[in-house]
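Hello again, I could really use a second opinion on something today. I've dropped the whole record in just underneath, so have a look.
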Amino acid sequence: LPFIFFACLILSTFIQYQELGLKIILKSIFLIRFAFLIFVIKILTTNKIIDLKKFFLVSLFCTGFVSFDNIFQYIFGYDVLGIKPRDERISGIFGEEAISGGYIRLLSLFSIFYIYIFFKNKKLKYFLLFLIILLHGIGIFLSSNRMPMFLFLFSSMLILIFVKNFRIVTSCALIAFITIAFNLLNNDDYLQYRYRDFIELK
């Protein structure tokens, strides 16, 4: 947990020095809020106010569903509830609110941790980890929410560097995601437009 908080602070500082606009500063503050959220969850679980396993499971269900819903909407032009994209932006069940990418990213680590911690069968565990990382990545990518996409990739890189047992499955999932993302970019003018200034973090 201290490492996560420290990583968020580093990323926050990095973003602020990239561009001194109010929008970027607010996004940096949000990263710090996310770190505090983790501390709050730790306190709640330590004192048995919430069940960590149930919280992770709910996170997995919610992010998995929203990711699948985004993909469904992208393929068919409407989501599982019949909601159509607004101005070509994939938002799934959130309708006119283009926040599905941020929602997935916010809870994605909890979803991954549920599979890693509570699944005992190694083959099943690593298959599900690969699947959920890939599913989340594509779900966020299709939402065209650039900051959540950047943060998801940043979190994945931290996992690659610091979590030894995650390296192979995370690498495979990222390779599969990047391959799919590039194919989508090559065939979708709107996604090209949304991500052409991705490095500028706008």
